[in-house]
Every structure is written in C-alpha cells, then in structure tokens.
Design a protein that fits this description.
Blueprint (H helix, E strand, L loop, with lengths): L1 H28 L4 H19 L4
Length: about 55
C-alpha cells in the first residue's frame, strides 16, 4: 500500500508539469493578451463617450 501511495504521489509532479506546459502553450497561442484587451476596451469606451452625446 505504501508503494502504491508513493508511486501516485510521484506521478503528480509530471502530470502537473504537463498540464502547466499545455496551458502555457494555449495562452501564448491566443492572439493579444489581457493588457491588449484592457487597452482596447478603454479606447472603445473613450471613443463612444466622446461621440455618444452629439446626436441628441
């Protein structure tokens, strides 16, 4: 039983490492990033606020 538990605990390390690597690759493959999205959102709100009240 001790052998089984120790083997399972040792298998956690490479499993987590593989999950982290796959997650990193997916995030890096996605276009843009969180900072780019925040800047685009701020620029979008700024442009809408400037031109939004002129037509009424």
């Amino acid at each position: 039983m001790l052998h089984y538990i120790s083997r399972r605990l040792l298998l956690i390390i490479p499993t987590l490492l593989c999950i982290l690597v796959v997650n990193f690759m997916i995030v890096q493959a996605a276009p843009g990033g969180p900072v780019d999205q925040a800047i685009a959102r701020l620029q979008g709100f700024g442009g809408a606020a400037v031109g939004g009240g002129g037509g009424e």
